[in-house]
Amino acid sequence: MKVPYFDLPAQIRALRPELDAAIARTLDACSFCLGPDVAEFERAFAAFTGAAHCIGYNSGTSALHVAMRLLNVGPGDEVITTPYTFVATSWAIAYVGARPVYVDIDEQSMNLDPGLVERAITPRTKVVMPVHLYGHPFAIDPLLAICRRHSLPLVEDAAQAHGARYRGRPVGTFGELAAYSFYPGKNLGACGEGGALVTNRADYAARARSLREHGSNVRYYHDEVGYNYRMEGIQGAVLGVKLRHLPAWNAARRRLALRYHELLAGTPLRLPRETPDAESVYHLYVVRHAARDRLREYLSGRGIGTALHYPVPLHLQKCFADLGYKPGNFPVAERAARECLSLPIYPELTDEQHAFVAAAIGEFTGW
Ligand SMILES: *Cc1c(COP(=O)(O)O)cnc(C)c1O
User: Fold this and answer.
1) How far, in Å, from the CA of 61 to the mean position of ligand 1?
2) For a pocket test of ligand 1, which of 89, 181, 283 has the largest count of ligand atoms closer than 8 A to its C-beta?
3) What secondary structure, in 3-state letters, does the chain show?
4) Is the CB of 157 under 6 A from ligand 1?
5) What's the predicted TM-score (pTM) here?
6) Domain range 246-365, its CATH number among 3.50.50.60, 3.90.1150.10, 3.40.50.150, 3.30.470.30
7) pLDDT in tens, 86-132
């Protein structure tokens, strides 16, 4: 048996007639840059997250960048964020000339540790930007309490958490702004690149639309320096099709995760666990083991694909060397980077494949 780490071809095969029809309509209309398919998807995704406004972009990275612009973050400013995430969270900060200020993560959730945030706040702090890592909501209430005490806006990097819930409410509207990615491997993925911002604030939404279109509301009149960050029409059409399947896909991921919890409970692996307030959408199922590399090789030998999210924390990346961080600054994140292993989890994974993965892990750990 082969168990690929991710099986995008299986997902696309199942959707092919629906996708073909949606893309054909966009081709007929020649609405390639924004257009009605994107507008329709924005309405549907706003409703999905419970936000008043959704603005589509050409990537999640672009959406995060625009979030920093909307909050007027610039040179000399600091943004408190996690060192344990995909690099794009920090790109947004670097793009506007500000400084990422890292705070270590919580051992169990691997999300930003709210207990460490307050001492990182300085007069230069402009924003707090945690990540709902692996689809599991971060500690929203404790972080919002800190933000309110210091009059700081919270930005949610929700790129891995489409539909995740905190105290029963979808993530995305707890902060001032939330950014999503529709990279093909995400729980909701385009056939190409895509991203979005959601917000309840009409003023942010209006400026967010202008910034994605060259800083312009009226063609050839430019109010501020903007970008070409428009979502493509075809991606809007594709995302409109896929969004209708997302609730069932998220439910399938949750079912697989709960089953992994059961099958792996007796092994020495450290398993992900939901906090009482949170409902994860299991973008990734990341276990931890001290002999991670040997376990990974063993599974590979049995035809099982795995991945590492993430092998190097951001404070130790070459691109951020000038921030002056050193090994040992964030011990929890550094240990997570050494021990993490992402197991296959996607709606198309069969029960047989799933049981095969669990059995192979049992063999390796002698359980
Ligand atoms: C995927 C991702 C992004 C970037 O999204 P792109 O659409 O690839 O630009 C940002 N943050 C996190 C946490 C992500 O996982």
Assistant:
1) 6
2) 181
3) CCECCCCHHHHHHHHHHHHHHHHHHHHHHCCCECCHHHHHHHHHHHHHHCCCEEEEECCHHHHHHHHHHHCCCCCCCEEEECCCCCCHHHHHHHHCCCEEEECCECCCCCCECHHHCHHHCCCCEEEEECECHHHCCCCHHHHHHHHHHCCCCEEEECCCCCCCEECCEECCCCCCEEEEECCCCCCCCCCCCCEEEEECCHHHHHHHHHHHECCEEECCEECCCCCECECEHHHHHHHHHHHCCHHHHHHHHHHHHHHHHHHHCCCCCECCCCCCCEECCCCCEEEECCCHHHHHHHHHHCCECCECCCCCCHHHCHHHHHHCCCCCCCHHHHHHHHHEEEECCCCCCCHHHHHHHHHHHHHHHCC
4) yes
5) 0.98
6) 3.90.1150.10
7) 999 999 999 999 999 999 999 999 999 999 999 999 999 999 999 99
